[in-house]
Amino acid sequence: HAVTTQRARQPWSDGQVALFGVSYDAGAAVRAAAHQHPAVKALVASFLFGDIWRELFPGGIMNRWFLQSWCDVNSRLDNCRLSAIHPFAPLAMKGAAPASSKQQLARHVAEHSANWDLMSAAGSVAAIDDPVSISSGETMTCQNLELFSDPLPSLEGKAVLPSVAASQLPVLIISGWSCVTSGTACATFSALAGKHWRLLVGPWNHGGVQHV
Fold first, then answer.
1. Which residues pair with residue 176 across a beta bridge?
2. C-alpha to C-alpha distance for 20 and 104, rounded to whole angstroms
3. Which tens digit of pLDDT belongs to each residue from 175-209?
């Protein structure tokens, strides 16, 4: 809420905010939209994870390849190894802002070595309500990340996606037939779509990285 307010009040802003995100960022955009800030006028959610258990643990079996690939990308970002993601990645991403010295850069990169190990936590998940510990010391379950019905205290006990639907925002949902989020995209649109909602599903994998 504070970030949206700050953006809307900038001298270069007309006071209207559109929210956009891909994958993890789509989850952040959708959660922000659910709080119904008056400045928010539109939402684009691409490749949104709305039901982690069914998307990444279908039938109770972990999608190890997807989770490991995601962890590998995060590790490369944490360690400023953009070229390890893709040879052309440095052309599209600047990476972390350089520190004032190589020693400081090395120290800041080293701080990420203790980041939460998602794969170790995921390996202990056998059911939707199995708790895993995160770096803050709190516990989390797949159910906690479900956006259709899991209540959020910040939304006065309402779930995220129904709150977005109640906001009457124009919403564009994007996914791909070869993406694990396609079921969520179709289910969200089928159950909650309003007059100004649109759904786009194309021949893409997660994030639209590949045109299949």
1. 202
2. 33
3. 999 999 999 999 999 999 999 999 999 999 999 88
As a three-state string, the secondary structure of the chain is CHHHHHHHCCCCCCCCEEEEEECHHHHHHHHHHHCCCCCEEEEEEECCCCCHHHHHCHHHCCCHHHHHHHHHHHHHHHCCCHHHCCCCHHHHCCCCCCCCCHHHHHHHHHHHHHCCCHHHHHCCCCCCCCCEECCCCCEECCHHHCCCCCCEHHHCCECHHHHHHHCCCCEEEEEECCCCCHHHHHHHHHHHCCCCEEEEEECECHHHCCEC
- Measured over the CA atoms of residue 136, residue 139, residue 143 and residue 149, the dihedral's sign is negative
pLDDT in tens, 69-85: 888 888 777 777 777 77
